[in-house]
Amino acid sequence: MKRDFQAPGRSPVFARNAAAATSHPLATSAVLEVLQNGGNAVDAAIAGVAVQCVVETHMTGIGGDCFAIVTEPDGRLTGFNGSGAAPKAASPERLAELGVKEITDTSAHAVTVPGAVRAWETLLSAHGTRSFKELFKRAIEYARDGFPVAPRVARDWAQNVAKLSEDEISAARYLINGAAPETGTILKYPHLADTLERIAEGGADAFYSGDIARDIVSALQAKGGLMTEDDLAACHTTAVAPVMRDYKGYSVAELPPNGQGVIALVILGILEKFDLENMDPLGPERFHLEMEASRIAYAVRDKFVTDPNYMDVCHTRLIGSDYIDQLASLVSLESRTFPIPEASLSPQTDTVYLSVVDKDGLSVSFINSLFSDFGSGIVAPASGVLLHSRGKSFRAAPGHANSIDGGKRPLHTIIPAMVLKDGAPFLSFGVMGGQYQACGHAHLLTNIIDYGMDVQAAIDFPRMFFDLDTHDLQAERLVPPSTVDGLKARGHTVVPASGPIGGSQAIMIDKARHLLTAGSDPRKDGHAAGY
Fold it and tell me: Residues with catalytic annotation?
């Protein structure tokens, strides 16, 4: 599909040596600086995400979790699960004793052990060439000396004033006279700067033990949380083999559970059973099929996907051909399936993302998140660590795949991905947007593979998603009225999305031409660059 140069939008970035795509220009600059000074893709990714943890503090931070896929030039893949677990003392019974019936995103029980810093150190040990001390320089500089608030960051911030106002420390740290900072406001985080310096000097252990750990535990226990210093000290990153599935001659790699990456593969498997490539990419047929496949796949997710030690079904069963056929049979091209029959699902016996590719062909697909905007809204006061809310995915009641338990990792929405073609790296990509991400992976890939879009056009293309409770469809502004009418005729309720749905970054790798093509999402103030 050729780009219409008369339509508003941005062109992809082309580069020969290296490329980066992140959700913030300052992070992209930090990535390129490391690459041009001889660091590799993993070094650069750590430098970039450290900057994002300062300048996009509402979306990510050192108090969150991290997942990554590293791909060697020959196509060898290694996955890293940097998600933390629930406190050892947590259980449905303990929460019931405390009177907790639901884990909300501002509850201390929504805070699992933050796994990001340990994951960064593990990535550097396995694939990096630089130290935290070298890679944190820009992040520390922005935290201590100040950075300007970007337009999209200011927009999101303004929508979270009420949440931040609930906590005295959060209000003091993140609001100015009770209001969100405006675009261009210079912000400084001296406590966070000190903490980053301590991690730079002492490594991940400086975060998971000592004063910083005590500060985190104290903040959570003051709000009734169960976290202990032993819980933090036990944090570890797991190296995992990505799970693979073919889609029309391309090998798509996702991380296995406790993340929802396998659900992106389920959606693609269902879509492959239909004549998607001959449907109008903006038409009601395409969006109906995509939404039906996603609704079915997310029902599978909610029934089965959790910490793999607690799953009733092996994740490989969920992408098997027989099971995909079983799920695809639930799709009608003429009408919406509702409700989705649960019996048919059993197999028969806010977030930042960045992608980096270096001059040697090493590529990193990397995602780091606080989950909700500003995570739990709980700040450890002395260290300035804003804590995530990933434990919100747990159920407080027993009997569910994601019922809370001590040492258990929750269902994760954040999922980096890689695509291989003929065994070689082809695309490093990821999608932001919480629950949307698995659906977003399928949408982006079908834009590229089925409709021939370049990475930037695929990212810019209008999106839809569905409300997880009502299953009403949410349409971005540029979805045509005729498509909305066609979806309504198929039984869908369609409402305008309240804002952009997710965001994405991607780098396409053309090994034969030694050419990199990078795209970034204008919805998220994304920025791609290369050299």
Answer: 351
Q: What is the pLDDT of residues 187-228, one digit of tens each?
A: 999 999 999 999 999 999 999 999 999 999 999 999 999 999
**Tens-place pLDDT, residues 134-154:** 999 999 999 999 999 999 999
**Rounded distance, CA 200 to CA 132, Å?**
5
Q: How far apart are CA 408 and CA 352, in angstroms?
A: 24
Task: Supply the Cα-derived Rg of the chain in whole angstroms.
Answer: 22
**Four-point Cα dihedral 312, 314, 320, 324, nearest 10:** 30
384 with 189: CB under 8 angstroms?
A: yes
Q: Is the pLDDT of residue 371 over 80?
A: yes
Q: What is the largest CA-CA distance in the chain?
A: 63
* Listed residue (206, 60, 84) closest to 133, CA to CA: 206
Contacts 24+ apart (CB under 8 A), 8-11: 9/456, 9/457, 9/460, 9/522, 10/456, 10/460, 10/520, 10/522, 11/456
Coil/strand/helix, residue 256: coil
Of 58, 140, 61, the C-alpha closest to 385 is: 61
**Of residues 31, 67, 152, the one with CA closest to residue 368:** 67
β-pairing, 473-475 vs 494-496, is: parallel
Q: Residue 265, exposed/middle/buried by CB under 10 A (0-12, 13-18, 19+)?
A: buried
Mean pLDDT of 273-301: 97
Q: CB–CB of 118/235 below 8 Å?
A: yes
Q: Is the pLDDT of residue 169 over 60?
A: yes
Cis peptide, bond prior to residue 339, ω within 30 of zero: yes
Task: List all residues 6 or more positions away from 17 whose beta carbon is below 8 Å from its beta carbon.
Answer: 359, 516, 530, 531
Q: What is the Cα–Cα distance from 83 to 235, expressed in whole angstroms?
A: 9
User: Mean pLDDT throughout 297-322?
Assistant: 92
DSSP structure class, residue 317: G
Output the pTM of the full model. 0.94
How far apart CA 133 and CA 122 sit, in angstroms, is 15
Is residue 453 helix, strand or coil?
Answer: coil
